[in-house]
Design a protein that fits this description.
alpha+beta, 3 strands, 66 residues
């Protein structure tokens, strides 16, 4: 899954990113950043830290099976 990061500017002038899959589905959305440089830094932080991230399930219900 390659996907892409899409940067947008909201009504308050903050920059946000979304990680979008090849099929167009939005997988993750970043917070609002005051500058485009800060937004790109947020993307780079996600890229560096996410490959080894684990899942911590804090719910009380079992995972759905399909």
């Amino acid at each position: 899954m390659a996907g892409k990061f899409v940067i947008t500017e909201d009504e308050q002038g903050e920059y946000r990113f979304a990680l979008v899959a090849n099929n167009g589905q939005t997988l993750a959305v970043g917070e609002g950043y005051p500058s485009k440089v800060a937004c790109v830094n947020g993307i780079e932080t996600l890229r560096r830290n996410a490959p080894q991230a684990t899942i911590e399930d804090r719910t009380t219900s079992p995972a759905a099976t399909g």
